Amino acid sequence: MKISHLRYLLWLFYVMPPALGRPTPPPPPPPPDHVHEPPAEDDCPQQDPPVFFQTQADEFAIDIAIASRNDERTWTNVSGYFRVVVNPTSHTIRSVGSEIYQVTGPPGRDRQRISPTFTPYIAHAYRTPTQSIYADRWEIGIDSEEEATNSLSNSFRALANKIHPQLPLTPRESSQLLSILTTSFNKQLDIHHPTSLSSNAVPSSQRKASGLSSLRHLSAAVSANDHLDSLLSSPLLSKKPRSASFSKSNFEAIATPFHLQRQLGWLEDRIASATVTLDDFVVTLRNVREALASRPETTRKAIKDLSAGSKILRWIRTSGRTSEKDIMSAGKGSGSSNFLRNTLIDVLVIQGRQDSVWHWLKYTIQIPRNSIFSRLLFAEIHFGAGVEAAMLAFLDAPNRGYHGPRSAAPIVAHCLAAAPPLSSSDSFLRFLDTLRSQPENSFACAAMPLFHPDGPSTKEGMAYVSAQSNKVMATGEIDVPQALRRRHVAFYLKLAQTLLSMGHSENAVLILRFAQAHFPRELGIEEKHLELESKRSASSSESSTSEEENLLQLHGLFAS
Questions:
Q1: CB neighbours of 213 closer than 8 A, spacing ≥ 6?
Q2: pLDDT band at 305 (very low <50, low <70, confident <90, very high)
Q3: 3-state helix, strand, coil in the chain (%, to 5)
Q4: pLDDT tens figures, 28-42
Q5: Contact 242, 269 (CB under 8 A)
Q6: Residue from 407, 544, 47, 51 nearest 536 by CA
Q7: Per residue in 125-160, pLDDT tens?
Q8: Domain boundaries in the chain?
Q9: Which residues are CB-neighbours of 242 under 8 A, at least 6 positions away?
Q10: CA distances from 451 to 52, 415, 422, 424, 514 (A)
């Protein structure tokens, strides 16, 4: 029988009662050799069996049943199964044999057993403690080398339909299903048995205290059931494909919930037909982003009503075309995975599913945590509850299990651009105290006091500019990365404006001269004009009014 004629029915058995913290009952004695009668049809399980995951096992086995398909694309009896064993320590998957029956004639005829060692059956499993692959579980198969009775076959098909009503129909769908299994189990291994820890992971002393506590509360049964649910909910397994109502080339702009629903329906059909690609996810999220820019309120409501972020994330996990790990691991470039991750974070925040992003930040695999955390703050500001919610997220990160670097750049950039009113003095003071304890946030420490709810303070800003000036005198150049130069100019202008409003015109002049001398390109001023403005700023007869006009002129040039 050709591989392309085999259909794969997912059947995962994660067994080990110790993982659930309950005592293991002694195994019942094995039945006499002559007792191999299959149970009556009413004795078969009436609902999906529970799935358990044992994190302490050296290896665990996965059984995948095989069914054959006839020319009419209807399913015959189960024709066997194959077993693979996963080693979470070495991250290897090995085959331990397969037992396959070949149908030699039409349904109702005898089968030829390919593997002489296979005797499948449906019966209650009797195992010794050393044979813990199954325990208190129903096994699927046939009780002898003869073909199963119609009643037994019908029982199996009824049980299979309960678990999964529609199996893949084409070799391409089977290939994608196997890709889904590989991607999903690799993800499980990375999460539960990481090969290495991130360089910015929490120190070992803190990790032991927090890690042991979290592991104690991790339910192995819930983890495995969630894993199985995510696989079975893939449109490839759960949805009959239909012809798409429109293609990538003629997408309409998303302006209403109806259009967003059509967009998601199109993506779901692509997954169900096993034709989805990474570009399809990019196209969908690019249209969502454009809709957020053109009609933000309508699109946000549609995202919430349709749970768009959760759906797309679930489909990414189970599509087999890209992995959640690949998307999370994308760098700061403009690649498709980076675009997917950033837009997906925005959509999840709109939906109120920040917990999914926090879950990423707790992974022990190597991912750019700082970039993910910064995007979470950005999304909170622009798509969530605003800048104060971003401050609270910044403060709450350790309680959420994230101990990596925390950049306040999105909050500072928003305040410098929009100068939003901040109402909570308590959260602002806690935020400022946290910044002061982090040397990497020295620029944020200088800028944020300008937006204090109780009144601006220029002390930290003046100290920061003075330190920069000293570095310039020592090295001959300004120590500001290219990507942050415009943000620094915005800070200098805000600081000078604040100084002028407080009557400190001389200090404002110094700030202006410093900005003009070291950031001419960002200010859009020619060297000749710079010299003229510097002379005017240095003139002892310059009034505070003209300095304010000069400042406003510079501000206008920068804004343009």
A1: none
A2: very high
A3: 55, 10, 35
A4: 555 544 444 444 444
A5: yes
A6: 544
A7: 333 344 333 323 333 333 333 333 444 445 444 544
A8: 3-167
A9: 269, 272
A10: 53, 8, 7, 12, 22
